[in-house]
Amino acid sequence: MLDRILREDAVSAHEPLAPITVSGSYWIELAPVLVAARDFYPQPLTVGEGGITKITSGEADLATNAETQLLRESITNPDLRIVMTVTEGFFRLVGRKSAGIRTLADLQGKKIMLPRKTSANYFLVAMLGTVGLTEADVEIIGLAQEKDGQSGMAQMSGYLARGEVDAISIWEPESVNALERLGDDAIVFQDRDLYREVFNLHARAQDLADPEKRRAILAYVRSVAEATEALKEEPTRYWDHLSDVSGFSLHEIEESWPELEFPVQIVPDMLDVLEREDVWVAKELDRAPRTREELAKLIDHSVLPEALQTRS
Q1: Nearest Cα residue to 2 out of 40, 35, 33
Q2: What burial class does residue 224 get, using C-beta atoms within 10 Å of its C-beta: 0-12 exposed, 13-18 middle, 19+ buried?
Q3: How far apart are CA 300 and CA 24, in angstroms?
Q4: Which of 222, 218, 202, 208 minimizes the C-alpha distance to 298?
Q5: Which domains occur in the chain, in start order?
Q6: What is the DSSP letter of 16?
Q7: What is the pLDDT of residues 49-93, one digit of tens each?
Q8: Overall average pLDDT of the 166-173 stretch
Q9: Do residues 64 and 33 touch, judged by C-beta distance below 8 A?
């Protein structure tokens, strides 16, 4: 691609960037990260699979994850830092009308399948709270074991369609699959003002303090911003690549796309989100919630502005 050739030519006149490794779970919201690595970063770079635990283990310098996983992992690795928001994902609860579900309050006593201890779990908790319910008021069903090469998450819509569970809480594209399998029997609950997944890119503070490593991180962050602009202008141009990496069909990507936004900048209420959700994470882990001041240390607002100002 012309953009990549021009960028490679520009960088060749400068010192090569320090080697970095990037990782992220292969969901649709990873699109800007994947496109950045393939088409905009000035040096060859492949995005490995896995979230911020890859940073803690030393396998990656940069990694993506939802805010809930940062709150878990930062207890053992307080050096983690949010450097940019890649994607905001708007989750949906999909239920069966035939299970007697017409309102959120009707979820009381129902079987709800979700991946435990994730953003989808917190989304359910937040939605239940709007009608005075808690996790204790529903029966949470964890994901099934992989079967015939199909992940537990990919089996959720099947469990729902067969009536083995009454509703599912999950990110895209499994809610798309559930809606299509249920047809007129489907009912959807979503509140974009109440909750959205904040899918961030993370780094270590020690790497951000290293001049050479920081230079490479800045270049990659800038590449993600450029990839985001490209995806906004012509998203379908990059869907084949996203499909190849993620394994999701072009149809699943197309139907899921309206439930995603790509802000680039760290969302303005990031600290509020961390403070609110840490109460839930802390309760489950049997620890005290962290203070707002402690949580603020997990956000580095200096990286993105510097990356956008720097030109190769």
Answers
A1: 40
A2: buried
A3: 19
A4: 202
A5: 2-89+197-309 (3.40.190.10), 92-189 (3.40.190.10)
A6: P
A7: 999 999 999 999 999 999 999 999 999 999 999 999 999 999 999
A8: 97
A9: yes
